[in-house]
Amino acid sequence: MHCDHVYSFSSANDLEATLRHFERAGFLRCDHRSHHPKGMLTGFVHLTGTYLEFITIEDEAAFLRDADAAEHWLRRHPRPYGIGLHTYNIEETHRHLQTVVPRTPPIVRRRRPEQPDGPVTWAFAEFPAAHVPGCELCAIEYLTRPRTPNTLIMGPNTIFAISGFVFCTDTPADRIAVWARTLAAVLPQCEQKQHTLSFGFQQFRWITPQEFEQWFDARWIPADSRYGELCAVQVRAADLRTAAAALQDGGFAVRHRTAPPRLYVGPDPDTGYAFVVEPGAPNVLLTVLNQNAVQVVR
């Protein structure tokens, strides 16, 4: 399994403008749109085996009626707040999660709203909020997606994959302890080192507000939301110099660090996305992703 996507609201509520903004920064936009409950319409930026998702509202009445207080706050003050954990076997993942969280909600299966008589498209297993504090996390199986090998998806900025997530809190040791207990059930290969949990090619990391301000030259604003601690998306780029130039051309604020080499980018005013960009080799990532898929298919 790996975390294959992250999502955030667009405060401008203009999906086309948001996608153009990220396209100008060197990302590869996807022209597909997805309709979701609560009046949501989402668009995407695709990476290798991973993607960024942007939420807009196409039915204000439905959102007003069905969205919870956290979602209303996050729409007004956007920041990434939810992560999808891609699994090839939702029943097995759900069963493993129940060993540490017995009251895990049942699996939810959904069709595309625009195809009510079509095939079941997704199956979700939600992680209870108390066991993954600061972020919405759900396992997802794509039931109609063919299991074909991943191919390299990399835009002009050379960013090619999501490699992790950064959380901001005053109590990183407490937070990582809770997450470590939960993830051990579904990601047995997960390893902890100080305030970082690593699994496969990805990691979760917890930092303090002071560290956030040092990284991004921006003040951390605590969220009035149980999902508000996800502060940055970690990504890999084939060439940091190219990535920095493209992101700056697209209007993102970019800060350079040389030891170790990385970029601190954002936060983006419209979506709240901030990035930690690190160097990486696309072929290495493809090998890991496709080995995982082959093991399941066999």
Description:
This protein is an alpha+beta fold and 298 residues long. It contains 8 helices and 16 strands. The protein has an 8-stranded mixed beta sheet with strand order 2-3-4-1-5-8-7-6, with helices on one face. An 8-stranded mixed beta sheet has the order 10-11-12-9-13-16-15-14. A hairpin with a 2-residue loop joins strand 10 (191-193) and strand 11. The longest helix has 16 residues, at 282-297. It is globular, with a radius of gyration of 18 Å. It starts with a strand and ends with a helix. Residues 294-298 have low confidence and may be disordered.
Mean pLDDT score: 94
Write the element-wise H/E pattern from the N-terminal end onward.
Answer: EHEEEHHEHEEEEHEEEHEHEEEH
Shape: globular
Distance between the termini: 15 Å
By DSSP (H or I, 4+ residues per run), the number of helices equals 8
Largest sheet strand order: 2-3-4-1-5-8-7-6
